[in-house]
Specification:
Layout: E1 2-6, H1 10-27, E2 47-54, E3 57-66, E4 89-97, H2 105-122, E5 127-133, H3 134-143, E6 149-150, E7 154-156, E8 159-167, H4 168-175, H5 178-185, E9 188-193
Helix pairs in contact: 2-4
Length: about 190
């Protein structure tokens, strides 16, 4: 059974960075390999990390980046619209799912983004952004996400990617509807652990 959790320990953080390294460096070649076998960057200091676990095994991850002195990684691809209030905004990034779990990618994506949404809602966030590779962009659209902004594809982190902005309200309609519940129901003990 799958669970979607906030990362709370150093050991869990290391699992996150190891999965990201496996996917982004070893499999995709989007970041350089290194001797540590871990992938992390300066935005991780301003991020809340989440994991998807299948039983006791960590199988996927995503992070939520809040406003910081670094801004958002999104801004390296496209400027933020002028009507964005950075304190009410966050970025979803570094989605990674291990290869053996990619058959469950839709379910893992929904579970992780749902967990992020719950934390962001408690923090009174109004909108979120992401720069995702084109297959993930297509998957989000198939799931029904409606974006208030969809930029032109840009080369980002090793792939042709699409900058997206979505409101929390539009996300709620997709993440907490009967279709999402059905997608998660047969695979999950609980959608979110405090």
């Amino acid at each position: 059974m799958y669970q979607f959790r906030l990362v709370r320990t150093i050991s869990q953080r290391k699992d996150v960075f190891a999965i990201r390294y496996q996917v982004y460096a070893e499999e995709k070649g989007w970041v350089e390999t290194n001797d540590s076998g871990l992938e992390y960057d300066n935005w991780d200091h301003f991020s809340t990390l989440f994991v998807a676990c299948n039983g006791e095994k960590t199988v996927g991850t995503v992070r939520m980046i809040e406003n910081s002195p670094l801004g958002f990684p999104f801004e390296s691809s496209v400027p933020l619209p002028s009507d964005i209030n950075p304190s009410e905004f966050y970025e979803v990034s570094r989605l990674a799912v291990i290869e053996t779990e990619r058959g469950q990618r839709s379910m893992i994506l929904v579970g992780l983004v749902r967990a992020v949404w719950r934390v962001a809602d408690r923090l009174n966030k109004k909108e979120w952004c992401a720069v995702v590779d084109q297959p993930v962009s297509r998957l989000l659209k198939l799931l029904g996400f409606k974006f208030r902004f969809e930029g032109k594809p840009v080369f980002h982190l090793g792939s042709l990617s699409v900058p997206l902005i979505c409101t929390m309200e539009a996300s709620r309609a997709i993440l907490f509807n009967k279709n999402a519940d059905k997608l998660l129901a047969n695979h999950m003990e609980e959608a979110y652990e405090n």
